[in-house]
Design a protein that fits this description.
The chain has helices at about 15-35, 40, 50-60, 65-80, 80-120, 120-130, 135-150, 155-175. Helix 1 crosses helix 4 and helix 5 crosses helix 8. The longest helix has about 40 residues, at about 80-120. It is elongated, with a radius of gyration of 26 Å. The protein is built from 8 helices and no strands. It has about 190 residues and is mostly helical.
Length: about 190
C-alpha cells in the first residue's frame, strides 16, 4: 500500500499505473539495446554488469526463452539508478540525431555540387554570396575539371574533389548547426 500523508492527504509514492508505465519504458529500452549491433552497443554508457545481461539476451534464440531473458534484463535495468538509464537514453537519441544531421549535411553538399555543375557561374556567385570565405579560383577550377571529366567519361576525380571542398566549406561555416543553408533555398 502506498498510504497517504496524514497532514495533506496526498498519496505517497507513485501509483501502480505509474510504476507499470515506468517498467514498460525500461523494457522498451532493453529491447532497443538488445537489437543494437555490438559496435554501437560498445559506444553507449552501459555498466559492465548490464552489458553481460544484454549479451546473454542476444544469445538466446528461442522465442519464449528470449522473452523471459528480456524480462530479466529489464528487471536488472530497473535496479540501476535513473541517471544511468537517462544517460543510455540520451546516447541512443543522440546517435539518431547525429546521423540525421550528418545525412542532411551530405545532402546539402551534394545539392551544391550538382547546382554548381549544372548552373556554372550563376551558382558559383550564389555560393560565394552565402560563403564569402570560399576560394573562388579553386572552386571554378574544380567545376571546370569535373565538367570535362563527365564529357570525356573519365574517372570522377575532380567530381569527388569538388564534393570534399564543398563539404569542408560548409562545415567551416557551421551550416549543420542550425544556420541557414541549402535547405532554405529552392533548387
Amino acid at each position: 500500500m502506498r498510504g497517504r500523508d496524514p497532514e495533506t492527504g496526498e498519496f505517497l509514492g507513485p501509483s501502480r499505473t505509474q510504476q507499470r508505465q515506468e517498467a514498460l519504458e525500461v523494457r522498451s529500452l532493453a529491447e532497443q539495446l538488445v537489437a543494437l549491433p555490438p559496435a554501437q552497443l560498445a559506444r553507449l554508457p552501459v555498466p559492465d554488469e548490464l552489458m553481460q545481461h544484454i549479451r546473454d539476451t542476444q544469445k538466446v534464440t528461442s522465442h519464449i526463452a528470449h522473452k523471459r531473458q528480456l524480462q530479466f534484463l529489464a528487471k536488472q535495468m530497473r535496479r540501476e539508478d535513473d541517471q544511468t538509464l537517462e544517460a543510455i537514453r540520451d546516447a541512443l537519441d543522440e546517435g539518431g540525431e547525429a546521423a540525421k544531421r550528418e545525412a542532411a549535411a551530405l545532402h546539402r553538399t551534394e545539392q551544391w555540387r550538382d547546382r554548381l555543375l549544372a548552373d556554372g557561374d550563376a551558382a558559383l556567385g550564389a555560393l560565394l554570396d552565402e560563403y564569402p570565405q570560399a576560394d573562388r579560383q579553386r572552386l571554378r577550377q574544380l567545376i571546370r575539371n569535373a565538367s570535362e571529366e563527365r564529357l570525356k567519361n573519365k574517372p570522377p576525380h575532380a567530381f569527388r574533389e569538388l564534393f570534399r571542398e564543398l563539404r569542408d566549406l560548409l562545415q567551416e561555416a557551421g551550416t549543420g548547426n542550425g544556420e541557414p543553408g541549402m535547405e532554405d533555398q529552392d533548387i
